[in-house]
Amino acid sequence: MNAASEGKVYPAVEVEVDARRLKDFRAVFDQAEGVPPTFVTTIEYLAFAQVVDDEELGLDFARVVHGAQEFVHRRPVREGETVTATIRIDSIRAIGDNGFIVVVTDIVDEEGNLVCVAKSTMVERGSV
Amino acid sequence: MSVRSFAEVTVGEELPQLRRVVEREDVKDYADAGRDQNPLHQDDDFARRVGFDGIIAHGMFTMGHMAACVSEWAGDPEAVVKIGGQFRAPVAVGEEIVTGGTVRRVDPEARTATLETWVSVTRADGTVDMPLKRGEAVVRLG
User: Fold this and answer.
1) In the sheet that A98-108 helps form, which strands lie side by side, from edge to edge?
2) Which chain B residue has the Cα nearest residue A23?
3) pTM of the predicted structure, to 2 decimals
4) DSSP letter (8 states) at residue A27
5) Which of A25, A121, B65, B135 has the most crowded Cβ, counting Cβ within 10 A?
6) ipTM of the assembly?
């Protein structure tokens, strides 16, 4: 990974909160109602795809495992609303053979209010 | 849905544990619902090439299971205002994961409870690993 990409902010991605996807996500975890607290991962993932595809960063996704995850919710997302997800590279560091990248995604609603902050640590394993 | 009342919660209280055997279809269903189609979670040959014995569950499957445990305790998934943790060990298809937690702090002004949460797995040889460590959740109580 290119450490110079630290601080990079990617273009905002618009995502509609799809009722069907929410229902399918709930079903995986046998949840009857509401928005599961980790559902925002499905929105974050679309923003994260830009990080995976970023040649300047050079993340080798075949060697990547998920290291850590956190969601802080101001409110749950609502079915049918469109939110924007803006991802940035918070830090890149090497520990031993492994590269650690921390990305932070702000999920913002149509009025510009913050809905959720998602923070992911991905580990690019040095020896597989 | 009815959110657990602040008055009902005590520090040191344990959440009811939630167990689940991870089936191959569960991992596929999570890939579809969660949008994460990484072959590490669907293609055994790929998983072996990158150092695993076969496909592993998504970290977010493990965390989603933990979130279900917290949501059930909270009485409403939308009362869980913060959740997170570190992924420390893979979970293979056919393994049973167990999740639970403990109330560590309560905040009477914010009416929140902070939980320490975890996910464990017992391997075929009897070894217990922690696929998810340093789990934390904050629940806004009624």
Assistant:
1) A13-16, A82-95, A98-108, A114-124, A64-73, B80-87, B128-140, B112-122, B96-107, B18-21
2) B33
3) 0.96
4) H
5) B65
6) 0.95
